[in-house]
Every structure is written in structure tokens, then in C-alpha cells.
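Hello, quick one for you while I still have it in my head. My current little project is about how a certain protein chain folds up. You're getting the sequence in one-letter code plus the fold written as C-alpha cells. Would you mind checking whether the C-alpha cells look sensible for this chain? Here's the protein in full, and shout if anything looks odd to you:
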Amino acid sequence: MPHGKPAGVPCVQLLPDMRCAVFDKPERPAFCGGLQPSADMCGADRNAALLWLTQLDTATAPSPHSVKA
């Protein structure tokens, strides 16, 4: 996904069993390799982790004025 993805949209590399198809492969994006899980990120369950990731995605999204067509 060269231009990123919207919050809530699964990565195209996510397998049906929720594993990453490019984990430990050279084509894995640097962002994914640099994202290290922590207790704050993972929370108590999957829903907490997805909420954290959604908030991160929203907080780091480019503003509409900075996106070039």
C-alpha cells in the first residue's frame, strides 16, 4: 500500500488468520518493521489494540490541505 490506507481498512498483506504475509520478508514496509508492540498498544484484548491503532492512524493522517493530487 504505497500511499498508506484509511483507518479501519485491513492491510492488503493481512492473511485470513490475521498474520502478516510479508513478515520477515524484504518487501515488508519499514514502517511495519519499526512498529514494535507494547503493553499500551496491545491493551487487554484485540479490540483495545485495534482502537489504539485507529487512534494512531487518525493522529498521523495528513491534513486534507497537505495531500497532493
